[in-house]
Design brief:
The chain is of the alpha+beta class. Helices cover 19% and strands 45% of the residues. Strands 12-13-8-14-15 form a five-stranded antiparallel β-sheet, with helices on one face. The protein has a four-stranded antiparallel β-sheet with strand order 1-2-7-6, with helices on one face.
Length: 186
């Protein structure tokens, strides 16, 4: 609800908490827990008050300007994604494509290691972020986890590791490419 006065506005927003999810807000950290899954986020928004009630998270500001409202809405989007991650994992799918040289892709610890990319002797690596699972099955790679930002960044790291520079992309079509993101196919 938005009530406008000249430059400062009163702003209230609420987020519904799903069933079987417990949330608490202590020392500017919001923690939501469902069974063994945990989502935590630091929320230090200026000029705002955050209350966690039984079924809702309420964010309110007595004197909010446009900048504060943008920050509040961004945090609300992150909270909604975190709550969705407690319900179901986010899944990105990538595909290994090679025309000239067959490449080998495997996981080693917290890295995805790509060898023989375009016939290169050096290995290319992509970092796997915390709480993200990477499965390689033939030419398909599945990246999954409950934190959408970590899962998306890991998928982007894998795709970026095989970026071709200084060559004609129409001829050198080798690489690892995203084929599916949560909620849509590419």
């Amino acid at each position: 609800m938005l009530i406008s006065t000249k430059m400062k506005m009163k702003y209230n927003e609420s987020i519904n908490i799903p069933e079987k999810v417990e949330c608490k807000f202590v020392n500017s950290i919001l923690e939501c827990k469902k069974e063994d899954k945990l989502f935590s986020m630091e929320m230090d928004i200026p000029k705002t008050k955050i209350d966690v009630k039984k079924e809702k998270i309420e964010i309110s500001s007595e004197k909010a300007n446009k900048k504060v409202i943008k920050i509040i809405k961004s945090n609300i989007a992150h909270i909604n994604n975190g709550l969705k991650g407690l319900e179901n994992d986010f899944i990105y799918k990538l595909e290994i494509c090679h025309v000239h040289f067959p490449m080998t892709v495997k996981t080693e610890g917290n890295n995805v290691v790509i060898s023989n990319f375009l016939g290169e002797k050096t290995l290319r690596t992509a970092k796997i972020l915390d709480n993200v699972k990477v499965d390689i099955n033939g030419k398909e790679i599945t990246v999954s986890g409950q934190d959408i930002s970590n899962v998306g960044q890991t998928a982007a790291n894998i795709e970026k590791a095989t970026k071709v520079k200084g060559k004609d992309r129409r001829i050198f079509q080798d690489g690892i490419f995203m084929t599916e993101k949560p909620g849509r196919k590419i």
